[in-house]
Design a protein that fits this description.
This protein is an alpha+beta fold. It is 24% helix and 55% strand. The protein is built from 9 helices and 16 strands.
Length: 443
């Protein structure tokens, strides 16, 4: 009787195991056969069916990852390899595939973290160079110009019954920047840059009552230091934090009355002292990468608050085609208003190049983007923008070349004074065209 009870308890203590074990063995046998025959599509279908039935083991994940990799579904492959890596992080075969699937998925930070744990033999076998403390050096230059500049400075800005009139017209901008990438620890990466921009404008003054009609060219010089840290939390999660500091001077002129019809334009300066701090979190997935970011700072001497949500979509499971919609909710301390800015990007691989088109709409002023890398603190307001970026890897990804064209519709203001201190603003629009080129060396 005791023996019968013991057999009864053992048989019913592990319900389902007797069925699961044959199913697992069957899945193992079928997927191994498909793997050896390189029938990648069928292997993925078999693996997905097994996962739905709660059958999941190390070699199944490795085979599914290799199948996805061979089909160039690199983000899907990385997901499978990530799960397999948790069970056996010392398998050189797995690690090689895992590393390159991360690189080809655009997840370089995670790939660098993985490579930090490779043995010298594994690095040599996979032809991987570990990142040093300085992992990259880049330089870039930008030029932008206002196509309506000549028309705007020839325009009559005087209004009926006005006391005096003033308008500043953007002419052109020149930008230069230098940056360094650092791989400080397996989980921690740092990027910082120093840049300068020179902005040329023309100031227009007109007053029939005071016999004033003149134009004066002026300039502004601004410097920017930017630092951004990226920390890997694991399982595709990452944190970012950044600080932007801007300083410089913008020069303008005030007419000083000397005698009827004769004025002296006294040069004055406006000190630029802006800063932005932002932090964000992102999660890498097979087909999606959501990112949430918050920022605050002082721009144009007013406190600013901003929240950004970005969703990168990979419809095919790799970076050959992707969509990046982004919405920004912005509280502008200049006038206390709340604004919404929307941008849409779409990227596509075209042979050895990647092309990215972009479009943005909303009143963009006292605003930041790119984790605070770009701060819009100019007096003009961007109403909409559109552009295209070409990215090309050179010398087996040892160098990266980026060329970008951006067309922006901007709004400036004409100050119409009814007396010496009271004025109204009359908007005018123009189109600004900018060209940027950037070169990066991966060390």
């Amino acid at each position: 009787m005791r023996r019968f009870l013991l057999i009864f308890l053992i048989a019913f203590s592990f319900p389902g195991k007797t069925k699961a074990q044959p199913d697992r063995l069957k899945t193992d046998s079928i997927t191994w056969l498909l793997y050896t025959e390189k029938k990648w599509d069928q292997l993925i279908m078999e693996a997905e069916g097994a996962f739905r039935n709660s059958i999941d083991f190390y070699y199944l994940r490795v085979r599914a990852g290799v199948a996805a990799y061979e089909l160039k579904k690199y983000r899907e492959a990385a997901s499978h390899f990530q799960k397999a890596y948790r069970e056996n992080p010392s398998d050189d075969f797995l690690n090689g595939y895992y590393y390159w699937s991360l690189v080809l998925s655009g997840r370089q930070d995670e790939a660098d973290r993985l490579a930090d744990g490779f043995t010298p033999d594994a690095l040599k076998q996979q032809q991987i160079k570990k990142k040093g403390t300085v992992s990259g050096v880049s330089a870039e230059a930008l030029f932008s110009g206002n196509r309506q500049y000549s028309e705007l400075i020839d325009e009559d800005i005087e209004s009926a019954d006005s006391y005096s009139n003033y308008r500043a017209v953007l002419k052109q901008q020149h930008y230069w920047g230098f940056a360094l990438d650092h791989h400080l620890q397996p989980r921690l990466n740092l990027y910082h840059s120093l840049s300068t921009i020179a902005i040329d404008r023309a100031e227009m003054y007109k007053s029939t009552s005071n016999l004033l009609d003149t134009l004066k060219e002026t300039t502004a010089v601004q410097y920017q230091y930017y630092i951004n840290g990226r920390y890997l939390l694991g399982n595709g999660w990452s944190l970012t934090g950044s600080l932007t500091r801007l300083w410089g001077k913008s020069y303008y002129h005030i007419p000083v009355y000397l005698s009827p019809g004769l004025y002296n334009l006294n040069q004055m300066s406006w000190g630029i002292s802006d800063w932005v701090v932002c932090t964000g979190v992102a999660k890498e997935g097979t087909y999606f990468r959501p990112q949430l970011e918050f920022g605050f700072g002082e721009v144009s001497r007013y406190r600013q608050l901003q929240a950004n949500f970005q969703l990168t979509v990979y419809p095919t499971g790799n970076v050959d085609f992707y969509l990046i919609p982004e919405g920004s909710y912005h509280h502008d301390g200049t006038d206390g208003s709340n604004r919404f800015v929307f941008t849409q990007k779409a990227g596509l691989q075209a042979g050895p190049l990647w092309l990215t088109g972009e479009y943005g709409t909303g009143r963009i002023k006292n605003y930041f983007t790119g984790h605070g890398l770009v701060v819009y603190n100019m007096p003009e307001t961007i109403l909409n923008k559109a552009g295209i970026t070409i990215w090309a890897p050179l010398f087996k990804y040892r160098m990266e070349l980026t060329a970008r064209y951006l067309r922006a519709e901007k709004e400036g203001m004409t100050f119409v004074y009814s007396d010496a201190s009271s004025f109204i603003l009359k908007p005018y629009t123009f189109t600004d065209h900018s060209f940027l080129i950037s070169l990066k060396w991966n060390l």
